[in-house]
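Question thread 4412

I'm putting together a teaching handout and wanted feedback from people who do this every day. The idea is simple: show students a protein as raw sequence, then show them the structure tokens that encode its fold, then repeat with a second protein so they can compare. Below is the first pair exactly as I plan to print it.
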Amino acid sequence: MKDIPCYDTFAKIESIAKGASDDKKYLIETANGNKLILRISDIENAGTKKAEYAMLERVATFSIPISLPIDFGVCNDGKNVYQLLSWLEGKDLQSLLPNMTEAEQYTYGLKAGELLRLIHTIPAPSNAEPWEDWFMEYVQESIDCYNDEDIKFEEVNVLIKYIQNNAHLIKGRPQSLIHSDFIDSNIIVMPDGNLGVIDFNCEIFEKDYGDPWVDIIFMEEWDNEISPRYSTGFVRGYFGGEPPQEFFNMLAFYFACDAIAILNETYEEGNAEIGLVDVQRILRWFDNMNNPVPTWYLKDFNCTND
């Protein structure tokens, strides 16, 4: 990284192990005391990383609290690309939620949903490919990939049938800029109590725009159990109240699609059973895909009940 133009100003370099990205991440402290984040990626990912950086430049013009883009380029004798960003001070919401009261979880869910809604005010390009064309091709590739695998699960057949029977829901869906990884570990509680967001991700869908509601499946890391208070607050914060039934229909559809994609990924890694746990979780949330309102959504809950 010594060929990064401002490397001489780096007084302290600390590796960051957190996060699922393949990027190497570093907390940088400069000679004048500023904190920065440095992300280094393989040169083969240059196109995706350049798109992520361009997206950050666009988001920064909308006064949304993010790690601001400072510099982008090639380093390590052409082997890598780097992004240099400002450091967003605070603690990630994932680490704070377990120690919050249920009322606090709900309140921060409201704030997170409001922040995502603000991000979605950033429009998609006027010449954007129709979302239904791109996404259904993406989903069919996931289904074809699963069908080509040696291992089969009856639970997945339920999801595939649900997707095929509800593909009409996606027709004519609007588009906006999407974060694609708006999970609680990427949401920062800043010192003033307001929220900021980091790690915009172009890798998942290989684009930075799409149906804004697809972002809501990333509202919380659900490797274990989702927080009903936080997630209910999130949905209500996003909609400014109770969501329409159309939203729940799309939510079940997107979760079903995502579960198959995750199963394929874990199968390739030799851990298909992990992906199956996710599939079973989705089926449990949506009553075997018979009810699009997930079990974690507390329809009769209001904060005064806590």
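The second pair follows. I'd like the answer to focus on this one:
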Amino acid sequence: METVTLGISGMTCGGCVRSVGNVLKALDGVAKAEVSLEKNNAVVDYDPGKVKLEQLKRSVEEAGFEVAS
């Protein structure tokens, strides 16, 4: 397992936080995703053998949010 913190912009409410959390948790290999509106980030525990960092970023972007690298 690896942990990564993704900076996320575009979240404005609790619904946004749920959306980001849901798209991350839906990926095979993501064990945990804690999304914070206050910190504008998501802390994700994932298995790099099942899901790549780029896939995490792409899923957040496809949900309508921006990921700061």
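Top answer:
Good format. For the second protein you could add a caption like this: The chain has a mean pLDDT of 96. The radius of gyration is 11 Å.
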